[in-house]
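Lab channel / #folding
Pinned by the channel admin:
"Please post every new chain as: sequence first, then the structure tokens as a reply. Keep commentary short and put observations after the output so the thread stays searchable."

First post following the new format, from NK:
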Amino acid sequence: MESTQEKTCGDKTEMEADSNTTTTKSMQIDLDNQKIGTAGVLKLIQDDSLKNIESLCLRNCDLDDDAACLIANTKTLSNLKGLYLSSNQITDKGASALGNNLNAPNLEDLRLTECQVGDAGAVSIGNNTQWTNLRFLGFGSNQISDEGACALGKNKAWVKLEKLWLDNNQIGDSGAAAIGENTFWTNIKDLLLANNNIGDYGATVIGKNKAWKNLQYLWLSDNQIGDNGCIAVAENTTWVNLKQLYLSNNKIGDDGANALAKNKIWKNLAELWLHGNQIGDSGCVSLAENATWTELRCLLLGENKIGNEGASAIGKNKVWVNLEELSLFGNMITDEGVREIARNTVWTNLTRLELSNNQIGNEGAIELAGNTIWVKLTELDLSDNQIGYKGGALLGANACKRWENLELIWLLNNERMKAEEKNALRGNILFGQKINIEEGEYEVYDSY
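Reply from TO:
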């Protein structure tokens, strides 16, 4: 997931003589990916200049709990604002030392992503009341469950907190509820809880939060949220700044989708991820009729139960003038359903259309080939359908005439296309390079 990828600490601009450290003009030490281990940390903390350091980057440095304890007990880090310790072998002992002892009243950013921290370490971090300037806590990909999440949720000192990443842990309903009940994080913008064990109760409490007026990004994908939890999220009237809502790979059906569609306050919503749920035509039609999301750029509805009625409704939408990416792969759409999508006249910014693994044949492909407004289209995926040579040829021809920015048309696993027809498409001097029909060349798009 793109949002969970941590950035490097900055460009290395000045090398200190006789030292393994790299210091930038912004009072920063960047040793990311250098296997310095505990011995390296011991040498580092003996440097008198450490008292001026604002950012200490030690990602993937082969650090263990002893190294974390050395950092935690260092008395010269009073100016530290950023501490980056992700991708190390730090467990509860090291995290607890940081939470209990780190004398860094100016700390704004703490990253412990992809370590081995469990509840005990999270509790110690959550109990910290000194870091009143904390803005970003990265705790993803650890072993934190409800106990640790509850301690974090009860923290009242982090009033400036803007980003909390807790994805890829073991947090259930009670932990999510404790986070949802926090009313002190009024500046929170980015809450990442994807890939946990959160169900309807946890999602409901989060949805009822009225303090997070600045929330922009809410990640709840890959949990166990059903319609009731989704309805509570949809009925929130506080998140007027919400830009991205991720609810993929849950248990949301038509009732949940209908509730989302009724939301009228998310005027800035740009991304809505709902793939991998149980949404059918009724829910899809409701989503298509939403007239509020004029800023919507990405709508993912793949791997649901959507048929022609839902697809047709999507195609008739006249509000999503900024739509750039539409995914409907893995549904039950035939030529009839794809017709209205092909005839849409407002998606002039569309760059990617994903329709693979449906029941689309030549007629549907011909309809798509007749589209004249998708001038920004770069990728069209029609793999695993029932398209033959005629449909493929017309798509290729249109790629040359109208879709000038098109890079690839995926036509893998269309069983109606004979070997000689594939060769003919592949060998076409005008568009052959833009059509991919070879087995084994398909790469799943990483947004899904």
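NK: The two ends are 9 Å apart (CA to CA).
TO: also worth noting, DSSP finds 15 helices and 18 strands in the chain.
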